[in-house]
Amino acid sequence: MTLIGHIIFLLLLQSSVLLAWQDYKDYQVYELTPRDSSEESLLRKLAREKPQWDFLGPIRWHNESTVRVMLPPEEASSLVSLFDSHQLRYRLLIKDLSPLVQAQRAENLRSKQRLQLPHIDVLAAFYTHAEINAYLDSLPERYPKRAQVKQFGWSYERRPLKVLTISNGDGRRNKPVILIDGTVHAREWISPSMALYIIQQLLDNYEGNQELLQDYDWVIMPVVNADGYEYTHSESRYWRKTRKPTTDPDCVGTDINRNFAHEWGHDAGSSSDPCEDIYRGERPFDQPESQVLRDILLQYSPRLKWYLSLHSYGNYFLLPWGYTNNLPENYQDMMDVAEAGAFAIVHSTNGIYSYGSTYYVLYPTSGDTADYALGVANATVAMTMELPAGGFSGFDPWVSHIERLVTESWVGVRAMAAEVIRRYPS
Ligand code: 0X9
Ligand code: ZN
């Protein structure tokens, strides 16, 4: 290519990058506070009827619970008139999301200017799927006896989906397993950071955490929803689902956490509408990313003592079941593990976690990964951890807050791992 050709190419590339990035100009964020259970039901009904309104968390009425909702500019007046007519309590938190989204994007890109792959500093930035893979791939060389990377398959857009196994290198085979995944939901950026922090604790801080690897192996998949996660970096910061087209040409993506085959398809906890954020897919496991996570769960099933899925946000340890208000047989054992995590966190930072069955503590979910891990893959303890909120939507902590969030969460994960190991010795 000529010099001019190069320049034109670079300009085109840059403008396409700029054009592709959704800047959330004039998007608004409201905070809603239901006053009683009828307002709670009304809000849930609105959430179902208005897929263009992005409810950023669970709608609950207990303890002055609030929920944020994000809207494109053309929806704002309809929200206000609907809420006024029903006399719902609401307030405008953010009038224009774009400067905030841009500031965060700039902060993250700036933080990565000195990035020297495959080395990454978890506390210094949020990393892309490709950067995380480069880092994972470098670990077996640095820790030949203790780290192994395996690719289990591909995402819909053909990104390699990788899993790291960590052991203490003593050569003992078939130890019980703690299996952790992250980034089932694309926009929950603290989740991959937490998975990476756990990896660094177990590998780089082996001295401090030896007892967690004495009789157990750890299997960690930092990014399940690779395409969705990439999309939140390159195009649309608040994307949740996968990127596979659906039966509706206008709506892309399925919620991996509604796509698993244990009690899949209940309307109370998932949606058949491809435009909704909790769309369950046409069939269980019709998403390649769900198939990969299923295969990992089944491969480790005979040794699976603790399955932990890292999400955000809300400070919850969520236990099965999501699909029914019945409790699983070993519910109390799982509660004891969750309690160990909650106590450890309260003691260390005063952070407060709620814990219990998803159905009661949060809302019904059907086809989620934790229900499958318990119901089909026979995990002894299956849990979803909703890490703390950050930033202005809850999903978007500032880079400067990563350290506080992951170090606090590690206190909980470490305490729960120790409890699992103590209760279920090999
Ligand atoms: O709704 C979800 O998929 C999870 N919450 S999130 O805000 N991260 O989207 C909760 C799923 C919890 N399910 C089980 N623990 N069974
Ligand atoms: Zn989530």
UniProtKB/TrEMBL annotation:
UniProt cross-references to SUPFAM superfamilies, sorted A to Z: Protease propeptides/inhibitors, Zn-dependent exopeptidases
Obligatory cofactor(s): Zn(2+)
Keywords: Carboxypeptidase, Disulfide bond, Hydrolase, Metal-binding, Metalloprotease, Protease, Signal, Zinc
Annotated active site: 386 (proton donor/acceptor)
Signal peptide location: 1-20
Cellular component GO terms, alphabetical: extracellular space
Coiled-coil positions: none
Example of a GO biological process term: proteolysis
Superkingdom to which the source organism belongs: Eukaryota
GO molecular function: metallocarboxypeptidase activity; zinc ion binding
Domain (Peptidase M14) ranges: 125-420
Family recorded in the similarity comment: Belongs to the peptidase M14 family.
Matching PANTHER family: FI02848P-RELATED, PROTEASE FAMILY M14 CARBOXYPEPTIDASE A,B
The protein's name: Carboxypeptidase B isoform X1
Lineage summary: Eukaryota, Metazoa, Ecdysozoa, Arthropoda, Hexapoda
Gene: LOC4813509
